[in-house]
Amino acid sequence: MQTALPIYIALAFLLSSCSVVKTTAKAAYSVGEFAVDVVTSPFTHDEIESIDGLSPEEAIRQGRVKNSPYVVYGKTYVPMSIEETRNYKETGIASWYGEETRKKNGGHMTANGEKFDPDKLSAAHKYLPLPVHVRVTNLETKRSIVVRVNDRGPFAHNRVIDLSAGAAKKLGFYEKGTARVSIEVVSLTADADS
User: Fold this and answer.
1) Which among 12, 28, 33, 128 is least surrounded, fewest beta carbons within 10 Å?
2) Rounded to 5, what percent of the chain is helix, strand, coil?
3) Cβ atoms within 10 A of the Cβ of 103, count?
4) pTM of the model
5) Selection from 38, 156, 132 nearest residue 80 by Cα
6) 26, 37 Cβ separation under 8 angstroms
7) Phi, psi of 128, deg, nearest 5
8) Residue 33 is inside which H or E element, if any?
9) Domains along the sequence of the chain with CATH
10) Is the pLDDT score of 25 beyond 60?
């Protein structure tokens, strides 16, 4: 019992200096000067007003995020069915998002609940079910990459896809800001079928 007492005292001290900050998306645990972010459920950006007629928090709780209709700035968006997605091809303007998005409230999480990393090859799309992989080709440079669509957007300027900063660099339009691209679905992931 005497050897266990110092362990209990140390544990009590550690827990007394521990704080938890929890949102619908993540919990941030802080022990002294160390902090750890833990994902607790999928997150939707502040712009998303409702999903499938429910508040984002309730839709997340019920697991209705991946291909449910959602409302942004008063406009309803209806994602494609899995069948429609299999033959999806589109041409239009791509933009990119990066560190500025991470600095926004909730910007560390994608609408699919994955951690947003601007250096990874990912993208946001208004209508594709989440997640899905698409081939994006810069029509000016002819460079082509495959990205994981795991987020919603872009909601401005009639753009068809918003790529991560890392994807924009690979496609050669990071400095320019936008590019004319073609998009084609290359694979549906298993969780897109649910």
Assistant:
1) 33
2) 20, 35, 45
3) 9
4) 0.69
5) 132
6) yes
7) -75, 145
8) none
9) 4-39 (no CATH), 70-193 (2.40.40.10)
10) no
